[in-house]
Structure formats: C-alpha cells, structure tokens
Task: structure prediction
Amino acid sequence: MTAIWDGFRRLLDFSGRDRRGRFWPYALVVVALAYVGMILAMMPAMAEMMVEAARQSAETHEQAAPLDSEWAPDLGAVFWPIRGVVAGAVVLLAAAVTRRLHDTGRAGWWAALPLVLLAAATATFPSVMEQMMTQAENAPMGLFYLTFGLGMLYNLSLLVLIVFLCLKGTVGPNRYGPQPD
Result:
C-alpha cells in the first residue's frame, strides 16, 4: 500500500530510481482505474447510441444498420472521453515510468515512443471510422492502413517498454542516482 501512495506523492518527481516492487503496484492501480474510468466515460455515449438505434428501428420497422450512413452514430462522443482518461493515466504514470526506466539505466525518453505512436493513431482513427461509416464500400484504404500500421508499431513499442520496466535494476549507483532501497 505504501508503494501506491508513494507513486501518487511523487507524481511530479522525474528524478531518481524506483525498484520493481515500488513501481508495479502503483502502475497496476493506475491502469485498473483507467479501465474503470474508460467504461464509466463510455457508458453515457454508448447508451445514447443504443437509444437512437432503437428509435430508428421503431420508426422504420427495420433493424438499424451500423454502417448505414443515415444512422452513422457520432463516435466522437465515445472517443473523446477515452482520450481524456488515457491522458489522465499518462500523467499519473509518467514520472513513475521514468524513475523505473532510470533504475534499469535507461533514459525516461524511452516512454515517449509509445505515446507518440498512440497519439498519431488516435488522431487518425476517427477519420478512418467516419470514412468506413459513410463510404462503406468505397472508403479509401490508405488512411486505414496508416492507422493500422501506427497501431501495430504502438503495440510493439509498448511491449518493448513493458519489457524494460520488468527488467532488474542496475546494481549499485548509476547515472540516475543511488540504488533504491
């Protein structure tokens, strides 16, 4: 429990080192809170989309088709809350990830690569979805392939980052400070 509270107390402390036992309890709590936050943030938008689908079905006596351009839901209402929760999780994890990377002898900038790729994929995804929803059969695929590639690179870079975070810290002092207790 101390490790979790310490993570919150050191939100703006990007210097020094954290051992695995101090980092992972805090990181897992933040990730769990982020998932709960995403679910709670998505619920109102999803409920509104379901109500609209039911209304469309009742009016037309047909099943509402998700790819029907007349019914295309506003997915921005779902994506913006998710972006906010992810941004909050990044803020909560940034310093802790940096300190953990410092313990392995790596610069905190290693954590930036997944963030850049995630931001790029997240920026293009709504446009891809809009094209798919409004031009289902004739949607240009270039932006889709770009977004898919960014997503794959994001996953690969995140996996590398997680491996770095799992590695044992350097023994003794390193350029980022003394070995943590």
